[in-house]
Design a protein that fits this description.
The longest helix has 13 residues. This protein has two domains: 105 residues, 2-Layer Sandwich (Alpha-Beta Plaits), CATH 3.30.70.580; 139 residues, Pseudouridine synthase I, catalytic domain, C-terminal subdomain (Alpha-Beta Plaits). It starts with 17 loop residues before the first strand and ends in a 7-residue tail after the last strand. It is globular. Helix content is 21%, strand content 29%. It is of the alpha+beta class. A hairpin with an 8-residue loop joins β2 and β3.
């Protein structure tokens, strides 16, 4: 990590009057996920907490809006931490943090939030976007940010299938089996939009998913299941059976991490100071 280090105390001297929320963007290919690992692996949380500790001269622990797995990117991840009056965010904080952070992580915004605000628990909706490049020609500019499938996909069939996933369902079939043990698996999906887009001269299919919260691997498994429909291997009505069975093996593959980006989080307006 670049920048000169300052002495860091282990004392949290915040007065608890408010919270700072940072909006982050990062290239997931450079990290072993967002959350700190027991092993010595590079994570986004480690990098942002180290930069904050250097800038504020104290230990800082952040809470994120949603953990991302290794390889998953973000352009609107939000993290929060308790702050003191003297630490109110300003342009200097943004400059310092972006100077201290490793390549691959950027702080886009810093805001003051009310006392008790949590980037995780105060989130109303979360938005993820998944890129798929279909057809025989692989992407170049988007190679690290999209899943390349050689078969041309039927987007209309995928939209028909996606409509069956919207509203509140038990999504046990769409999450890693081990993560569902002893936990509730009902979630609300507000919308799934599947559109054609062009970025940096390369065409791709974007799957945009918005919901209140998501299970581990849920979005990637939804995409992998919609791929089965788009590739003509399954009928759109296949989704109904997958939801009813509540078995991970009934759904499609878990789509590769590199195609997924944590895009945006919505919060109530009254949380901001």
């Amino acid at each position: 990590m670049s920048g000169s280090a300052r002495s860091v105390t282990s004392v949290d001297n915040t007065d608890g009057r408010f919270v700072i929320a940072l909006t982050l963007a990062y290239n997931g290919a450079l990290f072993h996920g967002f959350a700190t690992q027991r092993r010595t692996l590079s994570t986004v949380q480690d990098r942002i907490e180290a930069a904050l500790a250097t800038r504020l001269s104290r230990k800082v622990e952040v809470v994120c809006a949603g953990r991302t797995d290794a390889g998953v990117h973000a352009r609107g991840q939000v993290v929060s931490f308790n702050a003191s009056e003297s630490e109110r965010p300003n342009a200097s904080l943004l400059r310092s943090l972006n100077g201290l952070l490793d390549p691959g992580v950027v702080v886009l915004e810093a805001r003051s939030a009310r006392r008790g605000f949590s980037a995780r628990f105060d989130a109303m909706t979360r938005e993820y976007r998944y890129r798929i490049v279909d057809g025989p020609i692989p992407p170049l500019a988007l190679s690290d940010f999209a899943w390349h499938v050689r078969k041309n996909l039927d987007v209309e069939a995928m939209r028909e299938a996606a409509a069956l996933l919207v509203v509140e369902h038990d999504f046990k079939s769409f999450c890693r089996s081990s993560s569902a043990e002893g936990r509730g698996t009902v979630r609300r999906v507000d919308s799934i939009d599947i559109v054609h887009r062009v970025e940096l001269g390369e065409a791709y299919i974007e799957v945009r998913v918005v919901g209140n919260a998501f299970l581990h691997n849920m979005v990637r498994t939804m995409v992998g299941t919609l791929y089965e429909v788009g590739a003509g291997r399954r009928d759109p009505e296949y989704i109904r059976g997958v939801l009813a069975l509540r078995l991970r093996d009934s759904a499609g593959q878990t789509a590769p991490a590199k195609g997924l980006t944590f895009w945006h989080v919505d919060y109530p307006e009254d949380v901001w100071l």
